[in-house]
Every structure is written in structure tokens, then in C-alpha cells.
Amino acid sequence: MTRLLGHDAPWREWHAALGSARMHHAWILAGPQGVGKGSFARIAAAELVAEPGVAQPPVEAHPDILIPEYPPATKEDEKKREAGEDYNRKRSIPIDEIRRMQHRLNTRPTLGNRRVVILDTADDLEKNAVNALLKSLEEPPAGTYFLLVAHRIGRLLPTIRSRCRILRFAPLEDGQVDLVLSRAAPHTNAATRAAAIAAAQGSPGVALEFVEEDLAPVHALMQRLAVEGDPDLALRGALATVMGTRPSRARVQAAFELARAVLADNLRAASPERQARMIEAHAALVRLGAEAPIFNYEPPMLAMEMGALLASASGR
């Protein structure tokens, strides 16, 4: 399996633990979204379950690496999955997935003496799923290890955090993000690449979404909204147009990440008064992003509201 770019400190800590006599049974991989925590978890899990002389299948098909899924969002999506078509998934991991995982833990590992559960992401677990997970963390079966990916570790219950060892992941340097883009999207033009790196703030995942979703026009409008304001609603209308009338969930989610990144990027040079407006707008974007999939807002209205929050940060 290919070594993940960057994150030397987490790798050193992980390998030191792997080589120790007593490996902790539960880990939280904490850091910004898109920096590679999920990939780290899969590589680390493969290392943990490996047995000398025993051929190992790919992680996603490994019988001793359990990854609870985000199930289809609706009955219609279930039919699409069965037909092999693209389908929408739920926004959280339900308790049924955790119970299915726990049922598997009642059996012995298949290819060796260890089994790994990857929860990606743990901060998207439903409340009752969290309570069910806690029981497994309190009394883990022999040879079972947990890797909990968390974008916002503060959303995890203290009782979960207290039972886990924490690995922290920092944003990558711009040069490393550029290297990821050059490998994954080699035909990206220089202007788009530069904008993607600037918007990503050290997150290769965000940079790749920027390129894949063609967010350069969205980013340019968001920057103008945050700096110039929008007294005549023209920029908000333009933002709704470039977002599209039926954007995918991935595009909408990427737009929210981008809007928050725009505010964070402008925060450093802002006056204290403007910083306060930016922080307030950022918090409102987080709330709106959480509400959007629940209330099923119309995309143009959602784009207008995003634009309004960005414009409010300008103070104009």
C-alpha cells in the first residue's frame, strides 16, 4: 500500500506503539477534513492485521478490517445500490451499522489474531450509535482495535475521548498539497492549481474537490463577497448561477468548506471589528451546513444564503 504523503509525526507515534509490548486498543485520528486521516487509518489497519506469510486482501475487502458504512438515504437509493447505480447516502452512521459491526466482533479474526474497526468519520455517528460504540470501547474483545477518524474532535463525547489515544494531524504544506494535485490531477492548469492550493489551507482533499467540482468561479465570487460585500445582491445572484440549479451533494459540501476557508483566509489581516463579524459568519455557515441536508433547501436559496453570510463579514 502506498505511503501517505506527510504526517511524519503521527507515523512515528503509530509505529512506536505498534512495536511496543502493549498496543492501545482505541485511537482517535484528529485533524482538519481532507488532510489524509482516513487514508492513514486504512494503511495503519493493514499494518496492524498483517501476519507473516499470510497473503492479505485489499483493505476494503479484508475480513478483519471492519468499516461501518453510510447506508442509502432512502428506499429509492437502496434500489439504486442494488442495481449498481449511483445513490445518495445518509449523512450519519446509524446504530444498525454499529450493531452489525459488534455482531462480527463476537467471532474470531479470520486471517490472524487481530481485527480493526475504522469509523470514518466518528463525529458523524448518530447519538444512539455513539452509546453503542462506547460499550465496545469499554470492553473490547481480545485482539480488536479501533481507529476513529474525527474532523471535529470536540463533537465526540468525553467518555469516548477518554478511552482513546489521540493522534493529531496538521495541515500539509502548500508544496505537499501541490504534489498531491500533480499526481491526482496532472492536467490542471496553473491558475486553477494555485487557487486550489490557496483555498485548501493545507488540505489535499479540499484541493482535489476544488479541481473536481470546478470551484474556481465559486471561489472568486466568494472572495469578492467577503471583501466587497453585496449591497445590490448581484454577487449573490452570480454565486447561485455558478453553483448550478441542481448541484450534487458533493459540490454543495465542497462549497461550504470553501466558504469557511475564505473567511479563515481573510481573518488574519482583518481588523478586530471585522474579525468578530467573520467569526460570527463562520459559525452561521457551520450551522447552515448542518441544516442543509436535513431541511432539503433549494440550491439557489442555499447559495444566496451562503453569499449573504460571506457579505456580512465584509461590513459593507
Automatic annotation (TrEMBL):
SMART domains: AAA. Pfam families: DNA_pol3_delta2. Residues 74-86 have a biased composition (Basic and acidic residues). Keywords: Nucleotidyltransferase, Transferase. Gene3D superfamilies: P-loop containing nucleotide triphosphate hydrolases. Residues 23-172 form the AAA+ ATPase domain. The keyword Cytoplasm does not apply. One of its GO terms (biological process) is DNA-templated DNA replication. It comes from the Bacteria. Residues 59-86 are annotated as: Disordered. This is DNA polymerase-3 subunit delta.
